[in-house]
Write a structure and sequence with these properties.
Elements: H1 8-13, H2 19-44, E1 49-52, E2 56-59
Antiparallel strand pairs: 1-2
């Protein structure tokens, strides 16, 4: 393929979206928060069991 260099005006007109980076950051924070809450519930409960919405159940033996 032939590469064509862009001039300064064309480079300034390029629009690069940051949507994938933003989405990745939000999902990472959300997943981290869920794991933190789950671990906190496991370690602070006297029974070592926890249940989260959606039917997920975890048991610490």
């Amino acid at each position: 393929m032939r590469k064509i260099a862009l001039n300064d005006k064309e480079l300034n007109e390029l629009k690069v979206g940051a949507d994938p980076i933003t989405l990745t950051a939000v999902l990472t924070v959300l997943c981290t928060a869920i794991v933190v809450v789950l671990v906190y519930k496991l370690f602070t409960s006297s029974e070592g069991k926890t249940k989260i919405p959606g039917g997920w159940s975890f048991e610490w033996k």
